[in-house]
Amino acid sequence: MSKFDKVFNCKSLKPFIKTIEEILPWGGISESVFVQCVYKGLPFLTKIYWHSKSSRELYDKPEGMNPSDTEIAILRILYENVIKKNYTPCIVELAEAKTCEGVAAMINKEVKCSELTRRPINSYSDSIYAMYCKYAEQIANGISHDKVSYAVLERCNWPMKFFIRRAIGSSADEVIMLSLIFQVIHAMYVLNVLYPKFRHRDLHTY
Known about the structure:
Elements: H1 14-18, E1 20-23, E2 33-39, E3 42-52, H2 55-59, H3 67-83, E4 94-101, H4 103-110, H5 113-116, H6 124-140, E5 144-153, H7 160-167, H8 173-194
Antiparallel strand pairs: 1-2, 2-3, 3-5, 4-5
């Protein structure tokens, strides 16, 4: 049993909400949510994956893995084959991952979504429930799978672009920039050596 099983309880969001320190303003095409958490003194970053159906799943035969499942699977592979073998530390480390099914029923038991949408959002609890209510609606409309995944990642509270902006103009900005550029290029090189068909090439940050 993982030490995070009590946090990511598939029957209730309350244990997870209690760990939240901050909901980070990051995003991407997948609309995943990043949350800073602390559990028993251990700080960590949680990425919430919504299992929205891809175009292929909606309009064609659903072959292959959902993009959310794919990303978690790749992070597991990179942890085992790249990070643990000390090829490069410059890849986000996946500490734990868990998938919960029956999301819509769980939310409907825990909160009245119709009432939540009518009142101001004044807490992390309300924000999280509002996100899940929106997702439950997508599930009901058949455009998302009835499940959600959580990835426990190493703690990080700044996207790279914020770090770069802060570094520019400082006494060490040239050293910092050279170090960052080297780390990115080296990590991409290592991945291409280990996996010649690796084609991510997406270094965006929000």
